[in-house]
Design goal:
The complex is a heterodimer.
Chain A (H helix, E strand, L loop, with lengths): L2 H18 L6 H19 L7 H13 L5 H21 L3 H9 L1 H11 L5 H4 L11 E5 L1 H8 L3 E6 L5 H12 L6 E5 H5 L4 H7 L1 E4 L6 H16 L4 E2 L18 H17 L6 E9 L6 H11 L15 H13 L4 E5 L16 E2 L5 E2 L6 E2 L2 E2 L3 H21 L2 E2 L1 H16 L5 H6 L6 E3 H20 L4 E2 L1 H5 L2 H12 L9 E3 L2 E3 L3 H12 L2 H4 L3
Parallel strand pairs in A: 1-7, 2-5, 2-6, 3-4, 3-5, 12-14
Antiparallel strand pairs in A: 6-7, 8-9, 10-11, 13-16, 15-16
Helix pairs in contact in A: 1-4, 1-12, 2-4, 4-12, 5-6, 6-11, 12-13, 13-16, 14-22, 17-19, 17-21, 17-22
Chain B lengths: L8 E4 L3 H12 L4 E4 L3 H10 L16 E3 L2 H5 L4 E4 L3 H12 L7 E4 L12 H8 L5 E5 L4 H5 L4 E7 L2 H11 L4 E6 L2 H23 L4 H21 L10 H12 L4 H10 L4 H6 L6 H16 L4 H11 L4 H9 L14
Parallel strand pairs in B: 1-2, 1-4, 2-3, 4-5, 5-6, 7-8
Antiparallel strand pairs in B: 6-7
Classes of the chains: A alpha/beta, B alpha/beta.
Chain lengths: ~525, ~350
């Protein structure tokens, strides 16, 4: 962030959040007491948290004084709390580093690659010199994104499968020549030995998910909103967290997406010269997901109620990340990043020149959605509903731009066949019982794959989803070979392996995880 | 003539219901225009204050102005109320889409599904215009009775509170009571589905089967409606409201309903083609039956009454055959299919 903006953003954030909590009369008091309560609980939970003695002293003082303070004083106390949170969020942002990252990007890229170098990653790769970014393939509306980046503020909203997503997004945006994007990253990412340095370079600011106080969440939102209004492109994962099931997200966080509309409306009201905010749905598509084992285990354990924070997964183990990245190279396993068509905050597609289009391709005057009697007017219910429509458009783009890969297709097919072998078992039994004994006839698998490929090609032509270009050229045999090379090599137990002319699975949960990418796809689920 | 007030509402469609709603609004002091397709019709309405073809018994308020230039009059008007048959809905709203802006409210009162796609009218509005503030007005609204000033009610359903409030405000103080709701899918499907049941009710009356049979038909029809609505993502409770139950009762009991009359003639042994050939007005249920049947089949729903009406209209079943087929069906627990699985 430009240094001159940093102070202004801080002032703005404190102003906005304090104002929001100053009406009705007792709101400030409640906000102060609630925040102190939530913070005390947090400090009890994490005895060794990194909080400064100053902050603890502030909490202690406020706790003593708040109950008997006058309403004015309570508002002042609220400001102090908000100020503390805001400084923490923005404070992790190093202006000189950002400036460097903006002007001289190659060093930033080197930092990324060097973050892996303590492990001598690069030298250890077969053939030497392979780089993560060579495994990244970009498709879709890259030209429109580049063109719009100079005339509007962009909010990139990718699907979320892995912590590597933000790294790859950072790389992709660098390749497109865009300045770093602002990104609210969990503290665990900053503390991660591999990626912490990189995080600060993509423009990440700290999000402490252990802070539960509503005021803190408001500060985060205001921070994102204020920076968005000042023209800083942002990166959000609208699913809120990595997909536990492996499926592409269909239910998105309205709070995050709604910030785009708020920023646009505020910009219009303030008469800012570049008011537009556009949302760019992106999909990241992997043959293998670094954290697949932890994610699907969490999915099955909680039956979909994911733990919001997993701190102890594959990503926090450098050896695992090394192993994973090495696999990407040895398998030549391309990661596909698709930039979807940019959308305005009402869900209309936007051209490279910034024109919104209706479903018939006619130009739309997007400002009119916010007008009442000729003025830009806020209407909470209306705006929330606009955001629902935006979320629906993003979710549709996620479906359309899902790139089906060999591991998804084979996993989906294999799990389907195991299901047919055991029609009486529910999903959980299917995943656990008979895993060692049962196997699939390879010829049956080929037959199914051929049929599935034909159907997927049709769906691909109809624009319902995308097919890995390699997959489109392959026959079932080559497809199985490619998928088995992936599924059998990286994970602790092979999701699928071949013995003679039969396929065995040592971990059906992984079949579910990779298969869900396809099996939960809307085009395959919907009625004829 | 003095300069007119800025128009508040454009009613699109000069059929019986469109004309009735426009008249009601104009009587309530709302500056209203009625778009009709044919210039002669517009001239006649403006000259004689009567819609001779579709609503001959009602004198229209002089303030109601009929117009024929859709794009010109839709531009900038705060609220557009579309009341055209589903067969022309897409073409009509595509033209609207040329001029409509995101600040305008677009409400429709067309009951039925698009034949070719099975889509709901609000879906067509989304596809053909840039409008977001979309609503559906649906209920037991036999045009002639409303025209005669009898009390009536309907549901305005929209995801947008503003749409609900605006439409309620328009009819405030009239004898047309408009209740609000959020379930657009349910409201539209109720309005479409009831036409299928109305056709069946006409058959029941045509065969002279009596009130018990009619009650059986309506109740089981309501059950099928609720299952269909739920399968499509709507709220089955909507079926118990004005758009569902209310409209079923009015349409199926009334000789004023076009769908009902169509059913009576089917019972008399006439074919669909023959009846369609000499009808002035469209019986929406005929097309809707095909669309509903197709979608229900796709959902794997078993809707016997829909199946039977489809048989009558499209598969050459006689009324007697359809009745026998229904009577031979196995009988299960009454509410089984409606309970939450």
């Amino acid at each position: 962030m430009r240094p001159q903006d940093r102070e202004a953003v801080l002032v703005d954030v404190v102003q906005r959040v304090s104002e929001r909590w100053s009406r009705p009369a007792h709101a400030a008091e409640h906000a102060v007491l609630d925040t102190l309560y939530e913070e005390r609980r947090r400090l009890e939970r994490q005895a060794n948290s990194a909080d400064t003695p100053e902050r603890r002293a502030l909490y202690e003082r406020l706790r003593r004084e708040a109950p008997k303070a006058s309403p004015e004083l309570q508002r002042e106390m609220l400001r102090e709390l908000v100020q503390g949170f805001a400084a923490e969020v923005a404070g992790s942002f190093s202006a000189p580093v950002y400036a460097l990252a903006t002007r001289v990007l190659p060093p930033a890229l080197n930092v990324l690659l060097n973050t892996l170098s303590p492990l001598r990653l690069l030298e250890s790769l077969p053939g030497g010199g392979g780089r993560l970014d060579e495994q990244l393939e970009m498709e879709g509306e890259t030209d429109a994104v580049k063109a719009l980046a100079g005339r509007a503020t962009l909010m990139f909203v990718p699907t979320h499968a892995s912590h590597l997503d933000s790294v790859l997004m950072g790389l992709a945006l660098y390749r497109l020549g865009l300045p770093p994007v602002l990104y609210g990253a969990g503290l665990n990412l900053f503390e991660n030995p591999l990626i912490g340095v990189f995080m600060r370079h993509v423009g990440a600011y700290r999000v402490d998910r252990t802070k539960k106080a509503a005021v803190y969440k408001d500060v985060l939102k205001a921070y994102a909103g204020c920076t968005l209004e000042r023209g800083y492109h942002q990166l959000f994962f609208p699913g809120g967290t990595r997909s536990r099931s492996g499926a592409v997200e269909r239910h998105l966080k309205m709070g995050l997406l709604g910030m785009a509309l708020d920023a646009y409306a505020n910009n219009l009201r303030a008469g800012r010269p570049r008011p537009d905010v556009f949302v760019v749905p992106c999909t990241l598509n992997y043959q293998l997901v670094l954290e697949a084992e932890t994610l699907i285990e969490d999915f099955l354990k909680e039956a979909g109620k994911s733990r919001y924070i997993i701190v102890d997964d594959e990503f926090s183990k450098p050896r695992r990340v090394l192993e994973f990245v090495r696999r990407l190279f040895t398998l030549d396993s391309r990661v596909h990043l698709v930039f979807g068509r940019p959308l305005d905050v009402f869900g209309n597609p936007v051209d490279a020149d910034g024109t919104s289009r209706d479903a018939r391709g006619r130009p739309v005057d997007r400002r009119r959605y916010l007008l009442a009697r000729g003025e830009v007017v806020a209407d909470r219910q209306r705006d929330a509903e606009y955001t629902v429509e935006l979320a629906e458009a993003v979710a549709r783009a996620f479906q359309r731009d899902t790139v089906v890969k060999a591991t998804h297709l084979l996993s989906h097919t294999a799990l389907g066949l195991f299901r047919e072998l055991n029609p009486e078992r529910d999903l959980y039994r299917l995943l656990r019982v008979g895993v060692d004994e049962e196997s699939l006839d390879l010829r049956t698998v080929y037959t199914r794959l051929d049929a599935a490929l034909a159907r997927l090609s049709d769906l691909c032509v109809a624009g319902r989803l995308r097919l890995d270009p390699r997959l489109a050229r392959q026959d079932a045999g080559a497809l199985v070979g490619q998928a088995l090379a992936h599924l059998g090599s990286y994970h602790r137990a092979p999701a699928l392996f071949r013995r003679g002319d039969r396929l065995f699975s040592a971990d059906r949960s992984l079949l579910l995880f990779y298969g869900n990418r396809l099996g939960e796809h809307e085009a395959l689920r919907e009625v004829a | 003539m003095t300069r007119k007030k800025r128009p508040e509402v454009l009613v699109v469609g000069g059929g019986a219901f469109g004309t009735t709603l426009a008249a009601l609004l104009a009587e309530g002091g709302k500056t209203t225009r009625l778009w009709v397709r044919r210039p002669e019709q517009a001239e006649a309405i403006n000259r004689d204050h009567v819609n001779a073809r579709y609503l001959p018994d009602v004198t229209l308020p002089p303030a109601l102005e009929a117009v024929t230039d859709l794009k010109r009059h839709a531009e900038g008007v705060p609220l557009v109320l579309v009341v055209v048959p589903t067969a022309w809905f897409r073409d009509t709203v595509r033209e609207l889409g040329e001029v409509i802006g995101g600040d305008q409210v677009v409400v429709h009162a067309s009951k039925g599904l698009e034949l070719a796609t099975g889509r709901r009218m609000s879906e067509l509005l989304r596809e053909e215009t840039c409008a977001r503030k979309i609503g559906v007005l649906s209920g037991p609204n036999l045009a002639r009775e409303i025209g005669a000033g009898h009390p009536a009610g309907a549901l305005i359903a929209s995801r947008y509170d503003e749409v609900v409030e605006r439409v309620q405000g328009l009819f405030l103080g009239s004898r047309f009571r408009v209740y609000g709701g959020r379930d657009v899918v349910g409201a539209e499907l109720c309005g479409a589905f009831k036409n299928v049941i109305a056709l069946a009710a006409g058959v029941v009356d045509g065969l002279g089967l009596g009130d018990n049979t009619k009650a059986l038909l309506l109740t089981r029809g309501l059950s099928e409606m609720a299952r269909f609505v739920a399968a499509e993502g709507g709220d089955p409770l909507t079926c118990g409201g004005l758009a569902g139950m209310g409209d079923l009762v009015a349409t199926c009991g009334s000789a004023l309903s076009r769908n009902h009359r169509f059913g009576v003639r089917l019972a008399a042994g006439e074919t669909r083609e023959a009846i369609e050939a000499d009808a002035i007005q469209v019986a929406e249920g005929v097309r809707t039956t095909a669309a509903v049947h197709r979608r229900a089949t796709a959902h794997g729903l078993d809707l016997p009454i829909v199946r039977a009406v489809h048989g009558l209209l499209y598969d050459g079943w006689s009324a007697g055959q359809a009745l026998e087929w229904l009577m031979a069906r196995p009988i299960g627990p009454e509410m089984a299919a409606l309970r939450v699985r």
